[in-house]
From TrEMBL:
Residues 35-110 form the Insertion element IS402-like domain. Signal peptide: none annotated. This is Putative transposase. NCBIfam families: transpos_IS5_3. GO terms for biological process: DNA transposition. GO terms for molecular function: DNA binding; transposase activity. PANTHER family: PHP DOMAIN PROTEIN, TRANSPOSASE. Residues 126-279 form the Transposase IS4-like domain.
Amino acid sequence: MTFYLVGGAGASTASVVSADHLPSNRARLYPSDTSDAEWQVIAPLIPAGQPSRRGGRRPVHSRRDIVDAIRYLAHNGCVWRALPADFPPWQTVYDYHARWSTDGTVNRLHNTLRDQVRTAAGREPEPSAAIIDSQSVRAAETVARASRGYDAGKRVNGRKRHIAVDTIGLLLVVAVSAASVQDRQAGRVLLWAVHTVCRKVTMTWADSGYSGTLVDFAAALGVTVTIVAKFAGQFGFHVLPRRWVVERTLSWISRCRRTVRDYERLPEHHAAIVQWSMIIIMSRRLARHHRP
């Protein structure tokens, strides 16, 4: 059982790399493009420098154009080679995506925006409660057999994303595994990750797929897990207390077409695309909040 997990607390001021960015001369043509207000929020959190480890060359492309290209791909679900010609070359965009997915840039950007959204909503940056759930997605032929599996319950051959969210639906942790991994197994990984990065979380809600020994495991961490079961005799969809919050977040994530099916060769890249889907939502919220 192999997981790739990302999440955690927002970056401190010292850990955020700010830089002078090259200006963008692109016209903002697509719904996924950053507005000027959004870019003011995002720009201080995007590092400078080339993604290549060889170094030596000065940056050629605007970071805003790189970010907009990644957002375009996440939002529209196109293949890398089909990025519109007004973006930087797809190879360059992919290099930045790969580097930012593994060096902590996407994680810091996502978590800092999440803390800012919580603060703007009148809440503490760190939550005290969480809700967990999972979603199986079919894998494209680009996904290696070693990192996929079959979810017999959902009849899905692919990967499964396991998420923990706060009580307003903002993403805390995302883990990516083969779809064959049981929720009870993944629940331990999620709870441990949430406990590690959000020490104030003492209450977690989950569905019946997480019942059993997970409750005892959580108790050892000082976390109370409440199982929200379906109503007696329930058929079809019903809004269930607390669980609707995480189900809504899964719906938000699926608005980005790149997440509807898993096309990523590496699970860490799928986790990053999930975070980008939430970055789009949160940056727009913050832009509205800061609009004069």
